[in-house]
Amino acid sequence: MKLKHLAMSAAVAAATWGTAGLVLGDDGGGEVSPIYGVKLPEGYRQWALIAPAQEATPLNELRAVVGNGLAMKAYQDSTLPFPDGTVLVKLAWKHVQSPEFEPASIPGAATTVQVMVKDSQRYASTGGWGFGRFINGKPADEAQHQTCFACHQARVQNHDWVFTRFAP
Ligand code: HEC
Fold first, then answer.
1. Is residue 15 part of a domain?
2. In angstroms, rounded to a whole number, what is the distance separating the alpha carbons of residues 103 and 69?
3. What is the pTM of this model?
4. In a domain, 59, yes or no
């Protein structure tokens, strides 16, 4: 009984800490991305879906973009720019054919997890966004992080440098 209680408070603490800490990516666990110092946010796998996406070859991936509570609220209210504390995460997998039903596509091996954290002061020079790309939970190298903002900046200036629109 006591143990169960303890485990429960730990879970609650983790959840609370997760949401508060991940804003600046400083929740104490995991390695940070070069340049931006962004971490994989706690609990992102339980976040709400914003939209799926598919990437053609050579990458040939299925993707899902999810957001924290602030992100979902901003999408719901069509708030732009996204407020500080918004976190967007893009999960990606190899696109494979279902072995059970040919016309169906399913996720294969996980490839990258990418993160964008909004902090308009800290990341003022990159549209207010800090970027992180993780492979097996480890941040990718600095060269890869130099590419992030340039592509987002060139193509989605009119949407706070965010590609993904909410899929109803
Ligand atoms: C050559 C263009 C390009 C580069 C470089 C790029 N992205 Fe993106 N990014 C996209 C596109 C296009 C999407 C929309 C979803 C999709 O098609 O996968 C996206 C989506 C995202 C999203 C979901 C939010 C959104 O804007 O839709 C995150 C998070 C993200 N990228 C992070 C990164 C990080 C981190 C890097 C650098 C390591 C990076 N991106 C580099 C093109 C790019």
1. yes
2. 35
3. 0.87
4. yes
Determine the distance separating the centroid of ligand 1 and the alpha carbon of 152, expressed in angstroms: 7
Closest CA to 90 of 108, 63, 69, 68: 63
The tens digit of pLDDT for each residue in 36-85 reads 999 999 999 999 999 999 999 999 999 999 999 999 999 999 999 999 99
3-class SS at 4? helix
CATH of the domain at 150: 3.50.70.20
Q: Is 90 in the pocket of ligand 1 (CB under 6 A)?
A: yes
Ligand 1 mutation target, pool 70, 94, 148, most atoms within 8 A of CB: 148
Please give the Cα distance from 86 to 23 (Å, whole number).
Answer: 7
CA nearest ligand 1 atom 14, residue: 163
- The Å distance, Cα 99 to ligand 1 centre, comes to 29
- Contact indicator for 130, 161 with CB cutoff of 8 Å: no
